[in-house]
């Protein structure tokens, strides 16, 4: 009976759970799905850093590829970070093959904004020789299984993959003017901030639930994503239309996001510690 009810009246089905302060999957309203991260063991042999993040069923992989290029004329002392989020048809029936759809484009823009606003990496750190040579970091984030909350998973995978990157030492030969790459000497990136995204779905314009599934996102009257850094500072608030939020509700979201930041940072640190050679 409940399966029929869920199919015919999904919103009413959800409301019955939400009234009891729980969700059909057994979670409380403020509870995240099981979160795991694998760093550097993702079998992307061509990547300079990689990570795989699972948020419940939502599974995202991020590979970072570093290439050398000339800096832009107006930013002679800066390198580049180029993010791209892909939602291929294999990850969910809601996506089609072909050029990136609206949701993939919005996710790519969100990740670009997180990189810019949080200053996760100072672009000056990617410059090798002023006006001559800089690193370009291509950050490809691909969803393997889509079950909602792609923004949190993508931001987490990006951060974990960047922390895994090792760049070879590069110098410019004064006589020839050519770059010389020393693959034996590799250095990690300087990660200046650890931005973490925390997403909420808004039900019936008032009720907030954290880490929504795809079904919950579809039934929600709006969503909001809060990005915070190590100091609990707000890097960005991403709210694509939908129900308005009161100041008090937004403050609730920020408080929960700061707690989530600590959980994610602890998880990354633990995984990195476990893969470092003694």
From TrEMBL:
Coiled coil (UniProt feature): none
Record-linked Pfam families: RNase_PH, RNase_PH_C
Subcellular location: Cytoplasm; Nucleus, Nucleolus
Keyword match Phosphoprotein: no
Any GO BP: nuclear polyadenylation-dependent rRNA catabolic process
GO-annotated cellular components: cytoplasmic exosome (RNase complex); nuclear exosome (RNase complex); nucleolus
Chief subcellular location: cytoplasm
Cytoplasm as UniProt keyword: yes
GO molecular function per UniProt: mRNA 3'-UTR AU-rich region binding
PANTHER family in UniProt: EXOSOME COMPLEX COMPONENT RRP43, EXOSOME COMPLEX EXONUCLEASE RIBOSOMAL RNA PROCESSING PROTEIN
UniProt record similarity statement: Belongs to the RNase PH family.
Entry protein name: Exosome complex component RRP43
Protein's organism: Bucorvus abyssinicus (Northern ground-hornbill)
């Amino acid at each position: 009976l409940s399966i029929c009810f869920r199919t015919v009246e999904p919103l009413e089905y959800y409301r019955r759970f939400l009234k009891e302060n729980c969700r059909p999957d057994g979670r409380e309203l403020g509870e995240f799905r099981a979160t795991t991260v694998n760093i550097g063991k993702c079998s992307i042999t061509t990547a300079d850093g990689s990570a795989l993040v699972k948020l419940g069923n939502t599974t995202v992989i991020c590979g970072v590829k570093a290439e050398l290029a000339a800096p832009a004329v107006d930013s002679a002392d800066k390198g580049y970070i180029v993010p791209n989020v892909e939602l291929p048809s294999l990850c969910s029936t809601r996506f089609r093959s072909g050029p990136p759809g609206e949701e993939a484009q919005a996710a790519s823009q969100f990740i670009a904004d997180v990189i810019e606003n949080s200053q996760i990496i100072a672009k000056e750190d990617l410059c090798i020789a002023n006006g001559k040579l800089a690193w370009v970091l291509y950050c490809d984030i691909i969803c393997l299984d889509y079950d909602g909350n792609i923004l949190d998973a993508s931001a987490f995978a990006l951060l974990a993959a960047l922390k895994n990157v090792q760049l070879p030492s590069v110098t410019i030969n004064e006589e020839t003017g050519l770059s010389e790459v020393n693959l034996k000497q590799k250095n990690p990136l300087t990660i200046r901030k650890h931005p973490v995204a925390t997403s909420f779905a808004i039900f019936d314009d008032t009720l907030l639930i954290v880490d929504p599934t795809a079904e919950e996102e579809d039934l929600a009257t709006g969503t909001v994503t809060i990005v915070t850094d190590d100091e609990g500072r707000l890097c960005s608030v991403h709210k694509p239309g939908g129900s308005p939020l009161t100041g008090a509700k937004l403050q609730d979201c920020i408080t929960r996001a700061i707690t989530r930041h600590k959980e994610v940072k602890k998880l990354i640190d633990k995984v990195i510690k476990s893969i470092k050679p003694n």
